[in-house]
Design brief:
This protein is an alpha/beta fold. The protein has six helices and seven strands, in the order βαβαβαββαβαβα.
């Protein structure tokens, strides 16, 4: 059986309960439909019953790796370090980063906005020294993605600017049919 590793290393993982989680769950659902074994990788254990109740998406995932980011030193480098640990744990046919944390070996990445590469405000010399190697790592990782997905032309333009790569725009990023049927019930 083919294996898909869905990596969602954003802050509280799937317990963030935001739009990125819906994107991640949608990927997993499609992968299961295509016959993949789906394994999640997150920084915190996921409360799957809560996820199912909130999102009303039934996903029978096949496992979950928890790699706590907070145990790794140097906050700006946690995602990069975690991604190498993930690679050691799982030999997957396809790796999808659904949180845009720039997992260096991902085949597909969903980037809401490339904010990790955008330098804003005043940076001290020490902060620049701290951030520069990570920025280089992220730009290099950006070259390796087979497919980059985003949710708007605005984000696609930023991805082109910062990564020098094009992205496919997924629009709309939510299940419109479900929301339309709910609005009819409310009318």
């Amino acid at each position: 059986m083919r294996t898909a590793l869905v990596v969602h290393m954003f802050k509280y993982g799937l317990m963030n309960l935001g739009g990125g989680v819906r994107v991640s769950l949608s990927f997993a659902k499609v992968l299961k439909t295509l016959g993949y074994k789906v394994i999640y990788c997150t920084p915190f254990r996921t409360e799957w019953n809560l996820i199912k109740r909130i999102y009303d998406i039934r996903i029978n995932h096949d496992g979950e790796y928890v790699i706590p980011k907070h145990v790794l030193p140097l906050k700006a480098y946690q995602d990069v370090a975690a991604s190498f640990l993930i690679k050691l744990f799982q030999k997957a046919n396809v790796v999808i980063d659904t949180a845009g944390t720039f997992v260096p070996f991902a085949d597909i990445i969903y980037i809401h906005y490339p904010g990790l590469l955008k330098t804003t405000g005043k940076n001290t010399l020490l902060l620049k020294i701290y951030k520069k190697p990570r920025e280089i790592l992220l730009r290099e990782a950006g070259k390796s993605f087979n497919i980059i997905l985003t949710n708007s032309r605005y984000s696609r333009d930023a991805i082109i600017k910062y990564l020098k790569r094009n992205a496919l725009v997924l629009y709309p990023p939510v299940d419109v049919e479900k929301h339309l049927s709910l609005s009819k019930v409310c009318d």
